[in-house]
Amino acid sequence: MNNLSYIALIPLLPLAGFVLLGLLGKKYFGKAAGIIGTLFLFISAALAFYTAYQYFSSGFNGVYQPVIAFKYTWLQFSENLSIDMGLYLDSISMMMIVVVTLISLMVHIYSLGYMKREERFSTYYAYLGLFTFSMLGLVLSSNIFQIYMFWELVGVSSYLLIGFYYDKPSAVAACKKAFIVTRFADLGFLIGILVLSYVSGSLDFNTMIQTLTQPESSTLKTAVASSFLGVSAVTWGGLLIFMGGAGKSAMFPLHIWLPDAMEGPTPVSALIHAATMVVAGVYLVARLFPIFAITTPVVLEVIGWVGAISAVIAAIIACTQTDIKRVLAYSTMSQIGFMMFALGVSKYGGEAGLGFTASMFHLFTHAMFKALLFLGAGAVIHYVHSNEMKDMGGLRKSMPITHITFLIACLAIAGFPFLSGFFSKEEILLAAYQHNAAIYWIALFTSGLTAFYMFRLYFSIFWNREHLAHSEIQTYKKSEGPFVMMLPLIILAIGAAAAGYIPFGKYVSTDGRPLESHFDLSFSILPVVLGIAGIVSAWIMYKKQNPLPDKLSSSFGALYKASYHKFYIDEIYLFITKKVIFNLIGRPAAWFDKNVVDGMVNLTGNATQWLSGRIKKFQSGKLQSYTLLYLMAAVVMAAIIIYVWK
Amino acid sequence: MSDFFLIMKQELAVTAIIFFLLIVKIAGKSKNVEWLPWIQLLLLLNFIGGFFFIQSGTLFADMYHTNGLLAFQKNILSLGVYLISLLCSDWLKKSEHLPEFFLLMCSSLLGMFLLISSGNLLMFYLSLELASIPVAAMANFDLHKKSASEGAMKLIFISAFASAVLLFGISLIYGATGTISFDSLAQVVTDNPLQILAFVFFFTAFTFKLSVVPFHLWTADVYEGAPIATTSYLSVISKGAVAFIFITVLYKVFAPLETVWYWMLVVLSVLTMLIGNLFALRQQNIKRFLAFSSIAQVGFILVAITGTGVDSMASVTYFILIYVFSNLAAFGVAAIISEKTGKENIDEYKGLYKTNPFLSWMLAIALFSLAGIPPTAGFFGKLFLLTAGSVKGNFWLILIAGLNMVISLFYYLKIVRAVFMDKNENPVEKVLVNGYAKMGLVICAAGIILAGLIGPLYDYIRELITIFF
Q1: What is the model's pLDDT at position A618?
Q2: What number is the ipTM of this complex?
Q3: What DSSP string describes B171-219?
Q4: CB distance B196–A641 less than 8 Å?
């Protein structure tokens, strides 16, 4: 691998697409904008696959060393502290560019059909290009500040895409909410970056990790010794950085923006809120994993528990939602919880790093089946023009391709044996079992729930209310969708089924050395049985319309209600912001601003007006007074210096 | 011999242009306007050529010296002149005496080149005169305008007065020390009262050219009467050149008097920022407004000069470069609108965005940069200026400068608000911007944005200064 600068094209091509379509799209390209955007991304994806293939096939003695393909020093602060723009190749960034370009390409193709009738078709493709560029830049960053910039860019493009239907008030509210919540988390991220770069003296990942993981180094010793509120500086840095990651990855309690973000076009949800952007937090933790694992195990513990709690809460909420995209949103949150706690229970190096590998593996397989689920849901919504389960039913005959691919994805996410989700989830459970029993039991329970709510969704859409299939809204249409919408479903279904057979441990591990496979069938019995139990109970309750679900929900009473209302977390936030922050901080600040700050500004303004009225006299236009003042100033200055000051 | 040509190549190039213009004027029978593109091309070549074959050296018994840094500073001035020729092409085209205008401007530019390169007091004085006398004629270029004649008269009178004071100062210095060479002066200057008086008189020549308060009074009258091309030349190119030589003289020649000029600069910079801002606040005419705001900008330059060494020199050079882009863009927009519609009042700019989005954006970028709002280069320029000024620990000065930045923010943004947000029944009509002016504006805008984003630019300037200063 010698000349690697071509890798820069991978993120730059989507950017070129964005610039081209953003500037000229509407005027000159019209409907061709979609094809152009897709073409750019296709080349970018081909390059990404080629790069990843090159990287993984050239591992030296089976150990994958990070490679810096390109580096440009952008701002140099001191000898060690600089902001660079670089391309950092290692096993996880290679995996990520494959995921991002593949899913993005699928979404590009799918949108050719799905968004066909939109007026702002070219704008949509421009935004998609911007997002893909930002995401690729994020995963390829070699410097923590670079990651932060792309992190914000990703946030902006997500904001634009959620609010794409900007004439819908709910979409506008949702994009604002997503932006504000993640912004709040990013504040933590930024402070974390400053803390870590201060204690390590560098913003570069390699140097930072090196200085912060040498227990003998004096830098680390001072960093550990300096503490705030009894917690060392490095730990604070790690915690704050994780806060940024948790915001973007919708971890409890910063998850409230994700379900609302489903207001965006459905392919966007597949791209951003299922497969790529929301896993950026996981990626960030993985990127700095050596620091977390070696220097600040406490933070890793926190990460594990936040992940586990998010996983189970989201799964419970998902069981009661009726909007199919919201079910998928909570399921995403739950699965990202799995990835997070897998990182949390992992250690650094060797076989103890199983959780890390498992987390990345799950990220990879999850991207496939979750994107597939969203695109399938998109096809269903496209067909029935509703997000609500009550408007759907018996669709399996009219939408055969969607039905089969959706079923494959449901089985994969439920961990059904020999589909991709099975392998990655087993690995996560094994890692949890080895290192933290409490999390293991929570995870086991959650994976049973996952099977249940996914099949609740599946049966409600494709079976259940069969009479709806013959009602007038659904009969006049023949086709379930154009070819461009079906093709991505089929490709992703193959991925969702087969991705599990990649020997992931060989390629991705904490220290670049291959991991031995820990596959143990007897260990899998319990999760698989629980999964099947979940599927069967969903089958009993939702295959045909029956009174069982209602009875059950009324017998659970309070729990059902709490879950239906998402455990009132949104209301808690509203209470805190509206009642507490507004009244205790906002009002006094407004008063201060109005009376003191404005008062001072007005005073300055009035004083300035008065003063300039006074000195106006000097500007008389009379040459003789100009010269007089000139000479006087010179003489007075000299006199003061000579007689007074000296 | 070939060294001679290389060392003086920038001066020789300008001289060649002057001769070319003379020939055009004498021999040219066709309409003068047709020469404009060729003159612009020559000015562009003069700018580009400045980057090649740079040779350091001294000539004429140390009267003249040059090096990479001085060449770079001269290039900034050449760039400014080229931009003026683009931006004011509408006005220039209408003029019957187009070659003369360039003749005068190039003569003045030649004077500034020699001024920057001067190595003793005599050379300094002569080049200063060469730089300023043609400007008086340029100020009076709109012959039919009474205010132009008045401004030019005032300029020539007060220049003569300033020269007299300067010469007096020089003769006192020579009398006290027996030398006029910069290098040997640095060895013998002391702070006895005679030399302080001489130095203060000498110092006023700079403050006059930079229109530092209270030596600024001529500025408003001259700026208002003169055509915009002259005004922008005076406020950008002339000030830039004088600021460059000012630092050199203070740091290298009068270093022994540092305590004296340090406090003079502190007091004058505070006065300049404050009074420049106060006057700018009240202005209704955009030309007068830009004139006073440029006085305030000089105050910030003085703050940086109170610092020391490489940092001050680098920040001032960098700031002047950005200032060339920002101020010329603002003047350029004003020139185009004034030339096409005759409107110069800020109130008449209300609603400009509706009719002239391109000009509005250019004006907004320029004003943002002048106000020092990130990410425009003006922000970095101000940041470096204030950082350089803070090295001696005089944080009160930095605080006052910061407050003045806030005041200036107010009046710059007032114009941006008028252009973009205020409603107007009959806004400035749609103005057709000719290609040259458009190109000039785009170059300025690109410069404003890129000079801030390209980090290595500042490092490059710093490096030049560490080598040559």
Answers
A1: 66
A2: 0.81
A3: HHHHHHHS--BHHHHHHH----HHHHHHHHHHHHHHHHHTT-TTS-HHH
A4: yes
Chain A residues with beta carbon closer than 8 angstroms to that of B214:
618, 629-630, 633
CB contact under 8 A, B158 and A623: yes
Q: How many domains does chain B have?
A: 1
Highest mean pLDDT among A117-126, A286-295, B442-451: B442-451
Tell me the pLDDT tens digit for each residue of A73-118: 777 766 777 778 888 888 888 888 888 999 999 998 888 888 888 7
517-576 in chain A: CB under 8 A from chain B: none
Indicate the range of A381-390, B35-44, B166-175 predicted with least confidence: A381-390
- CB count within 10 Å of CB A501 equals 10
Please give, rounded to a whole number of angstroms, the shortest distance from the CA of A134 to a CA of chain B. 19
What is the rounded distance in angstroms from the CA atom of residue B241 to the CA atom of residue A57? 61
Q: Given CB atoms, is A46 within the 8 Å cutoff of chain B?
A: no
Please give the average per-residue pLDDT across A201-208, as a whole number. Answer: 81
Check CB contact under 8 Å for B161 and A621.
no
pTM of the model: 0.63
**B260 to chain A: which residues are within 8 Å by CB?**
641
A606 part of contact set with chain B, CB < 8 Å: no
Shortest CA gap B154–chain A (Å): 7
* Average pLDDT of every residue of chain A: 81
User: Closest approach of chain A CAs to the CA of B436, in angstroms?
Assistant: 24
What average pLDDT does the segment B341-355 reach?
84
Q: What is the tens place of the pLDDT at every residue in B122-146?
A: 999 999 999 999 999 998 888 888 8
CA of A625: which chain B residue's CA is closest?
B217
Q: Which domain holds residue B229?
A: 2-468
Burial degree of B178 (CB within 10 A; 0-12, 13-18, 19+) = exposed
Alpha-helical regions (H) of A463-619 = 472-475, 483-498, 504-507, 521-542, 548-556, 558-564, 569-574, 587-592, 598-615
CB contact under 8 A, A633 and B201: no
In sequence order, the 6+-apart residues with CB closer than 8 A to the CB of B105 are B81, B84, B134, B138, B233
Mean pLDDT of A590-600: 73
Taking CB atoms and an 8 Å limit, are A638 and B161 in contact across chains? no
Q: Which of A334, A330, A412, A409 is nearest to A376 (CA)?
A: A409
